[in-house]
Amino acid sequence: MSTRAALRYAKAILNLAEDNKSEDAVNADMQLIAATIAESQDLEVMLKSPIVKTSEKVNALEGIFGKQINSYSLGLIKLLGEKRRLDILALVSKSYQTIYNHSKSIKVAQVTTAVPLTKALESKVVDKIKELTGSATSIENIINPEIIGGFVLRIGDIQYDASVSRSLTLLERSFDNSQFISKN
C-alpha cells in the first residue's frame, strides 16, 4: 500500500515541478533526501516512529534540509506531515527519481564497488557510460566489500563484472578443471 501512495506523491510533485520548470532541482533534492535517510538509521527510525509527534518530525526535517532544498520539496515534506505519511518520505524520493529518470530517458547504472566512488571517479564513469551507450546516465553506487576490488557495472540487462572476487572465482574454476600430472 505505501508503495502506491509513494508513487502517487512522487508523480504529483514531479507534475508540479515540471509545471514550474523545477524538476531538475527537485530531483537533486530527492537524491539528497534519499541519501540522507539511507545514511542515518536514527532519522529513518524517527520518521517511522509512532511515538514521535508529526510536528517534531517536520521540524527535524526542516532543520536538516530547510536551507538546502527547493520550496516544492519542502512543501512535500509539510504535506506528508499533514497527512501523517512521513514514514514513506524515503520511498517517495526514490519513486520520484525513478519516474524522473524515465521521463528524461536517463538510464541508471549500478556500479558496485568495495569502497565508495569518489566524485572524480564517478564523473569519469558517467562520461564513459555516456560514450558507450549514447544516452544520459546516472549512477547508483552500491558498496559491497565482498567483491574485494574492481567493480561490477550493470545497466539494464547488461552486466560487466571486473571484480577481483570474480577473477579469483574464475582462477579457482580453472584449477578445478585442469588435470595435473603427478610425478611419482
TrEMBL record:
<comment type="similarity">
    <text>Belongs to the ATPase delta chain family.</text>
</comment>
<protein>
    <recommendedName>
        <fullName>ATP synthase subunit delta</fullName>
    </recommendedName>
</protein>
<dbReference type="Pfam" id="PF00213">
    <property type="entry name" value="OSCP"/>
</dbReference>
<keyword id="KW-0139">CF(1)</keyword>
<comment type="function">
    <text>This protein is part of the stalk that links CF(0) to CF(1). It either transmits conformational changes from CF(0) to CF(1) or is implicated in proton conduction.</text>
</comment>
<keyword id="KW-0406">Ion transport</keyword>
<keyword id="KW-1003">Cell membrane</keyword>
<keyword id="KW-0813">Transport</keyword>
<keyword id="KW-0066">ATP synthesis</keyword>
<dbReference type="GO" id="GO:0046933">
    <property type="term" value="F:proton-transporting ATP synthase activity, rotational mechanism"/>
</dbReference>
<dbReference type="GO" id="GO:0045259">
    <property type="term" value="C:proton-transporting ATP synthase complex"/>
</dbReference>
<dbReference type="InterPro" id="IPR026015">
    <property type="entry name" value="ATP_synth_OSCP/delta_N_sf"/>
</dbReference>
<keyword id="KW-0375">Hydrogen ion transport</keyword>
<comment type="function">
    <text>F(1)F(0) ATP synthase produces ATP from ADP in the presence of a proton or sodium gradient. F-type ATPases consist of two structural domains, F(1) containing the extramembraneous catalytic core and F(0) containing the membrane proton channel, linked together by a central stalk and a peripheral stalk. During catalysis, ATP synthesis in the catalytic domain of F(1) is coupled via a rotary mechanism of the central stalk subunits to proton translocation.</text>
</comment>
<dbReference type="InterPro" id="IPR000711">
    <property type="entry name" value="ATPase_OSCP/dsu"/>
</dbReference>
<dbReference type="GO" id="GO:0005886">
    <property type="term" value="C:plasma membrane"/>
</dbReference>
<keyword id="KW-0472">Membrane</keyword>
